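Below is how a single chain appears once it has passed through the pipeline. First comes the sequence as given, then the structure the pipeline wrote out for it. We keep one example in the README because the format questions we get most often are answered faster by looking than by reading.
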Amino acid sequence: MRMGGKVAGLLRRGQIYILTAALLPAIALAGPPFQTDDPEPVDLGNYEFYAFSATDGTSRETDPVGPAFEFNWGAMPNTQLHAIVSFGAILPSSSSADAPGGNAPNVYGLLDTEIGVKYRFISQTDNRPEVGIFPMIELPTGSYSRGLGVGTVWYKLPLWIQKDFPPWTTYGGGGYQIVNQTGYKSFPYAGWLLQRDIGDKWTLGGELWYHAPEGVATPQTHSATMFDFGGYYYFKKPAFQLLFSVGHTVVGQSETYGYLGLYWTWGKKEGDAAAAPVAWSMSGRSPAAAVSP
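Resulting structure:
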């Protein structure tokens, strides 16, 4: 009986590793600092870099990410190349049904690596929003046996829409996450955000974010609709910023989200004139400059 109890305990721990494999990669589901993204790529010949930490917590566990690094490059007109490399941890809750007595071990290591291409195929005008796609591939660089990765290549296929009404900006859309792995489900997700520039130093906004159940091998076994609030503080606009966001479930499975990071952007000037504001993914945007004829 004692040996059987030890085996059962080991199996429970193995189940925890597998059940938590999707949560940490899911934090990178969208653009910083929010979970909703937009269709606006980095300008041609410009770059942006993020150093950040994030967290996503449920009643089962808290899953911090950090350090993490995102790099985007305006490689072609209306086209942005994208990559995220991150490290993270799994901190099971002592009250989790899958961790009796709090015996489940904490783990930390490299997570799955994200690469993608954002392409804007409709530009914004005074009367028309901009529209773009942002397909991403998640490479299985995280350890599947330790719960730090999904263990196979998986995909995100979103469509995003944006319209600027300076000093207001609104954007959102949705997509489908494809995960072909035992215990996981492919599922839809969607979000919409409204933000406002406040003076020269602040942009603040709020979003509603929804995801469907992600499968029995994940902590998100039920759907959740979350409200997140956050924004950007400009140390130097747009070149250097602080990004932050925090949110919690309003309908569905209880979940808490948080993001804190630093952002830098640099690149070539347009022609010989002074540098124009960089059109970037989620922070430091100049709404007036984003409206193209």
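Residues 142 and 216 are 20 Å apart (CA to CA).

See the next section for the split statistics.
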